[in-house]
Amino acid sequence: MTGRSLTVSAGVIREMVRLAALEVPGVLRVGRSGPAWRRAFLGRSVVTDVRDGRVAVRLSLVARPGQALEPLTIQVRTAIAATVERLLGLELETLTVVVDGVGG
């Protein structure tokens, strides 16, 4: 069979990105910190934009206490890039990781 293609919904891409980030040991949760009204006001913690097989991702997360943030973001970027490129077969165009809080 030639010319095979795969169509993946934005929801599947967001979930795969979320799960990839959660596999990194220093990530407490994917989401925002603070009170519920703030989290609701700021919107989704994983935002994706797909164009021509390339994906732009913006991810907000909360780090575990005592975690060095720069190495954490590097590990998160590596995990997400592997997921997008290897598992979804898409090219990761940009990835923005926002550490929105530390701890609970």
Brief digest:
The chain has helices at residues 10-22, 36-42, 69-87, and strands at residues 27-30, 46-51, 54-63, 91-102.
Give your account of this protein's structure.
By secondary structure, this protein is of the alpha+beta class. The protein has a single domain (10-102), classed as Alpha-Beta Plaits (2-Layer Sandwich). 38% of the residues lie in helices and 31% in strands. The chain has three helices and four strands. Strands 1, 2, 3 and 4 form a four-stranded mixed sheet that branches. Helix 1 crosses helix 3. The chain is globular and about 50 Å long.
* CA-based gyration radius: 14 Å
The CATH superfamily is Cation efflux protein, cytoplasmic domain
Q: What composes the largest sheet?
A: 4 strands, mixed
CATH class reads: Alpha Beta
Q: What percentage of amino acids are in beta strands? A: 25-35%
Which CATH architecture is right?
A: 2-Layer Sandwich
Fraction of residues in H or I helices: 25-40%
How much is the average pLDDT?
A: 91
Q: Regions with pLDDT < 50 over 5+ consecutive residues? A: none
Dominant shape: globular
Q: Give the distance, in angstroms, between the N- and C-terminal Cα atoms.
A: 50 Å
CATH topology: Alpha-Beta Plaits
Helix/strand order: HEHEEHE
Number of helices: 3
Number of domains: 1
How many extended strands?
4
Structural class: alpha+beta
